[in-house]
Automatic annotation (TrEMBL):
Segments forming domain Transcription regulator PadR N-terminal: 8-80
Keywords noted in UniProt: DNA-binding
Listed name of the protein: DNA-binding transcriptional regulator, PadR family
Record PANTHER family: PADR-FAMILY TRANSCRIPTIONAL REGULATOR, TRANSCRIPTIONAL REGULATOR RV3488
Classification via Pfam families: PadR
Gene Ontology molecular function, alphabetical: DNA binding
Length: 172
């Protein structure tokens, strides 16, 4: 879960904010498409980080709105953030695709089921590629790092699309 810790700490490092604001930012950036993070689990994650002393909350109230905890990084949190940056960037890059569990079992199903599964995989790759292209087009104001992630995701989907075409030909 340290990748999620790093994402949350990074958002708080950019700007002190509440858990709801973090959820909105993650949803806006579509982070769950490239990092396994459950948007609803952010509240739990923020509480865990606060209990460990990595962030601290300041209760604020604006007008008639209910009180809200706004989180900021502690010195310990700053150290943990840097530790995670170095640790995660030094890890072996792994690409886990759930679709590989289908690919490894294609020989165990009928030809019709095999073709249907391969067709669905390709359709989903194309849909993901279209979504990424749309995000690149609509979110032109995002920072360069965000554009870098979208560019990476686009390159991966384009490669998967080529792979799906070749694999379908070999299987057909």
């Amino acid at each position: 879960m340290s990748a999620i810790d790093l994402v949350v700490l990074g958002l708080i490092k950019q700007q002190p904010q509440g858990a709801y604001d973090i959820q909105k930012e993650l949803a806006y950036r579509n982070i769950s498409s490239c990092i396994k993070v459950s948007i609803p689990s952010i509240y739990k994650k923020v509480i865990q980080l606060e209990e460990k002393g990595y962030i601290e909350s300041d209760i604020t109230k604006t007008g008639k709105m209910p009180e809200k905890a706004v989180y900021s990084l502690t010195d310990k949190g700053e150290e943990y953030f840097l530790y995670l940056m170095k640790k995660i960037s030094a890890q072996t890059v792994n690409i886990f695709l759930d679709l590989n569990s289908v690919i490894m079992n294609l020989d165990l199903v009928s030809i019709e089921t095999k073709e249907q599964c391969l067709s669905q995989i390709k359709d989903n790759i194309i849909a993901l590629k279209e979504q990424i292209v749309e995000n690149i087009t609509l979110k032109s104001h995002i920072p360069q790092t965000g554009k870098g992630i979208l560019s990476q995701q686009l390159a991966l989907t384009e490669t998967l699309e080529l792979w799906a075409d070749e694999f379908s030909k070999e299987e057909g």
